[in-house]
Amino acid sequence: MLLEREVPGWLDSRVNSRQSSVVILGGGPGGYEAALVAAHLGAAVTVVDRDGLGGAAVLTDCVPSKTLISTADFMSQFETASDLGVHLEDHEGDEVADSVAELNAVNRRVLALAAAQSRDIGRRLDADGITVLRGTGRLLSPSQVEATLEDGSIRTLDAEVVLVSTGATPRVMATAQPDGERILTWQQIYALPELPEHLVVVGSGVTGAELAQAYLGLGSRVTLVSSRDRVLPGEDADAATVIEDVFRKRGMEVLGRSRMASVERTDDGVVVRLEDGREVAGSHALLAVGSIPQTAGLGLEEVGVALSESGHVSVDRVSRTSVRGVYAAGDCTGVLPLASVAAMQGRIAMAHALGDAVAPLNLRAVSANIFTDPEIATVGFSQKDLDDGTVDATGVMLPLATNPRAKMQGITDGFVKLFARKGVGTVVGGVVVAPKASELIYPVTLAVQHGLTVDQLAGTFTVYPSLSGSVAEAARQLHPTD
């Protein structure tokens, strides 16, 4: 939650970076990025980390899940090969049977990549002279942190600046308790020894949708239980419709308006009971029903740090909490659960605390991506903002099926949508639904960040043929005429 108050800039800084000490709780994106900035500004930095550098983003969430999804995406290319005139045969000329994922091997690669990324972060922090303590920390006061280390020893750390970046953990319910074997959170799936025969995914938000499609692509039968009218209820409606259509077309069973009541283990699998009395039997259940901030037991309330009703740390746009000298970043703040936002919050916090020039967090310029197939990338104002009058803008949507590069690659699903202010043509937002939409959203993000007009975007050369050509074409169609 963002606190509503003025941001006076670096004049409010408590300390001088040349003589400052910084203690950071949590080594995820918000923590390690903040540590690098603080060290660069001359501070003595200590990071207290419990689970491993990189946090959930690197070890159990973003890096592992996107690696898993990349494997599923690679396998899906075999499914569309015949549409491009390619038939796979073995060395004797017989047509190759369906590809099968060896989940043990896949998970080994996933976890190895995550561990390698964590080690790289550790080497970078060490090279910059940052001290990393393995353990847990809690605030004794706004300027003192107690660290309980792995060996049981306790250290008291004096700090002129404290950053809380402890992240969040999967939400579990009393009626659906994960056991790590058949009933799983998204952090537990990488221990599965074999591919689930029938995976029931509870929750159709970003995590649920991404992993449902990943396991479908790997070869599992998948049922997605959604309590809402459609999957990805918080996203652009046109984009969510495309994804749900793709899910169904590829064989996923999507149960809309179906709220989970409980999940129980059976002799040979699981049963998911819905509130309307229906039951869905499967071999495994994946719970993707949100997350809760890891803020309990940190001494925050005792030193006066304000928390929201959900337990998130309340911060302003430069990551300050309600207590002078204490900052917070990442999923524990509830601002926007993205690794990129956590990292930016951490960098902004240190710049502000240590007297460097700083620009407050601008959520309108945040680009986000959902790693389904096709991907959904967004930035700036949304279609809903246009429809309810939040912004006076107009939009255009171009289907990718008309793009020549899309035709060559066999892409039939997806679109580019662009929004611009009426009259002046300033780009205020956009949506891309396409393979690698995470790359295609970048020019739109640049336009939103720097206030470019549709004419400036359209007047920039694009490669022909290219998917990015549709971004320029959408901009041309939004050329102001009045």
From TrEMBL:
Domain (FAD/NAD(P)-binding): give its ranges.
Answer: 21-346
Q: Matching Gene3D superfamilies, A to Z?
A: 3.30.390.30, FAD/NAD(P)-binding domain
Every copy of the Pyridine nucleotide-disulphide oxidoreductase dimerisation domain together lies at: 368-474
InterPro entries hit by this protein: FAD/NAD-bd_sf, FAD/NAD-binding_dom, FAD/NAD-linked_Rdtase_dimer_sf, Pyr_nuc-diS_OxRdtase, Pyr_nucl-diS_OxRdtase_dimer
Tell me which cofactor or cofactors this protein depends on: FAD
Q: Which keywords appear in this protein's UniProt record, sorted alphabetically? A: FAD, Flavoprotein
* Keyword DNA repair listed: no
Q: Which domain of life is it from?
A: Bacteria
UniProt-listed SUPFAM superfamilies: FAD/NAD(P)-binding domain (SSF51905), FAD/NAD-linked reductases, dimerisation (C-terminal) domain (SSF55424)
Q: Would the keyword Flavoprotein be found if you checked this record's keyword annotation? A: yes
- Any one Pfam family here would be Pyr_redox_dim
Family of this protein: Belongs to the class-I pyridine nucleotide-disulfide oxidoreductase family.
PANTHER family per the UniProt record, alphabetical: MERCURIC REDUCTASE (PTHR43014), NAD(P)H DEHYDROGENASE (QUINONE) (PTHR43014:SF1)
Name by which UniProt lists this protein: NAD(P)H-quinone dehydrogenase
